[in-house]
Known about the structure:
The protein is an alpha/beta fold.
Amino acid sequence: MAFRFCSLALTLLVCPILALAAPAAAKNSITWMEAAMPPYLIQEGAFRDQGYGDVITRIIQGELAEYEHKEVITNVTRHFYKFKQGEKVCSAGLFRSPEREEFMYFSIPSFLTLPAVVIIKKESLPQFGGKTTVRLAEVLRAKNVTIGLNKDRSYGMDTDAILDTYRGECNVLEITGHELSHNLFKMLMKGRLDGIVALPDEALYQAEQMGIRDRLVTLSIEENQTGYDSWLSSVGCSKTPWGKAVIDRINTILIKQRPTERYRTAYERWLDPNSIKHYRRVYREVFVQKTR
C-alpha cells in the first residue's frame, strides 16, 4: 500500500514538471520549411543534403545551438500558410517582397545566386528572337509562346514585377506540388511549354540529371541585369516576437559566416566554371557588404 502511495505521489510530482518542461522545449525549436528544389535543397539521390541550401542551413543551425531544429518538406503554398499562422517556422533562402513582409521577418541577405533566366529548347530559339537575351515583358505580351513557372514562388524583385503583370494570362502556366523544377522541365521537353522561368543553377542541375543539357538554351532576362536585388535572398521567419528574436540571432551569424570559404563555395559548386569568376567578384564587393 505504501509503495502504491509513493508511486502515485511520484507521478503527481513528475507530471507538473513535465507539463512545465514541454512549453520550454517548444519555445526553443525551429521548423525549417523546405521544398524539393535541387540543387538548392536535395532530399534524395547521390547528392542528398549537398545542395547549397542544405549546406547554408546546417551552418546556421550549428550556430543556433540553443534551438532544436527539424525540417519539413512541403510545397511553397503550404510554407506560406505556416508563416501566416505565426508558427515557429523559418526558411533559409527567400526573396523579399512587400507581400511577404506582411507575415515574415527577413534577415540580411543569406544567399547570392545568379538571377532568373528563361530556359528553352534549342529548336525554339527563333521563336524568342534568335538571341540569348530577351525582354521578358515582350515575350509574355506577345502571347505566341507559353511560359511555365512555379506558383507562389518568387524569382527576385525585378523578375517578379514582370511576372505579376501577366499571371493569369493564358500563356503563363503556374504549377504547384512537389518536384516543381523537375516537372516543369518534363513539360518543356514534351512540348507542353515553350519556355520556363528558373534559376541558372537549377536549370543546369535538372538538365544534367535528365541528360538533356545539349538540347537546351539559357536566355538571360534583360530586366534583371540592371542591379543585384534579384541576386539576393534572405532567411525568413514568422512575423512574431519569436521570429524577430531568431532573425536577430541569424543576422549576427551571417555577418560572421558569409566571408568564409565554406559558405561561398556552397553555391559555387553548382556553377559552371565560366560563371565563378564573376560570381566571386559580386560576392566580395556586394554580398558580404550587405548588412541590411
